[in-house]
Amino acid sequence: MSHTMKFLFLFVACFVLAAYADEIVIKVSNFKYDPQTVNAKKGDVLIFTWLSDGSRHDIVPSDSEGSCEESTTVTNLKTSVKSSGTYNYTITEDANTKIYYYCSVGNHCASGMYGTINVVSDTSSTATSGSPSGTSKAPSGTASASGSPSGSPSGSSTGTSTGTTSSSTPSPTNSAVSFNSITVVNLLVFLSSLIMATSLL
Fold first, then answer.
1. Which pLDDT value is given to residue 75?
2. How far from chain centre, in Å, is Cα 153?
3. Following CA atoms 109, 47, 132, 167 in sequence, which dihedral angle do they give, to the nearest 10 degrees?
4. What keywords sit in the KW lines (predicted)?
């Protein structure tokens, strides 16, 4: 019976981690990482995506924001120089940690090609910051970020309710948080039921 309980705990733990993990896309293009600064929690996956625009870049860890010198303590966030493809980095650091990196090719770092990852707590928002276009979180959340400001012209106060309801739609980030919370609650209830059922055997 003890082996069964251990299996159930591991099974549910995997689902809980999956429910809270997000994928954050960082575009690697000519002289910049977009967005330059992101917030991510432990377990999230950062997907660095080279845009195949003919330029060559890499990722090298540093010890401070804007530093163009390779870190002597951080070694797990590093790639070779390339012009296409992707690189996935899973956050293993604890909350309240900052991870810095830069491009070591030519004078790219001196031209502003460096980035920062803010590791936040599980209850904090994983929305990215520091991006002029706000397009780096999972693909499903990109459109509404640019659509929300456009719903506030003078026409939005007129009597036609059908044209204004979309401007009050909750952001994708809030929806994702609500979904994750419900998922975790359901999993915990499911686990409790299994424990009770197993104890009666």
1. 87
2. 31
3. -170
4. Copper, Metal-binding, Signal
| 60 vs 107: CA distance, rounded Å | 14
Strands 114-120 and 37-41: parallel
Closest of 83, 21, 14, 77 to residue 50, by C-alpha: 83
Query: In sequence order, what DSSP letters do the residues of 108-137 get, joined into one string?
Result: TTTTT-EEEEEEE-TTS----BS-SS---B
For residue 35, is the peptide bond before it cis, meaning its omega torsion is within 30 degrees of 0? yes
Digit-coded pLDDT (tens) for 160-172 = 333 433 344 443 3
Q: Domains of the chain (ranges plus CATH)?
A: 22-138 (2.60.40.420)
| Alpha carbon distances (Å) from 164 to 88, 110, 125, 175 | 39, 46, 27, 20
- Measured N-to-C along each axis, helices 172-199 and 2-20 cross at an angle, to the nearest 10 degrees, of 170
Query: What global pTM score does this model have?
Result: 0.57
Is residue 58 a contact partner of residue 105, using CB atoms and an 8 Å limit? yes
Asked whether the beta carbons of 46 and 126 are under 8 A apart, the reply is no
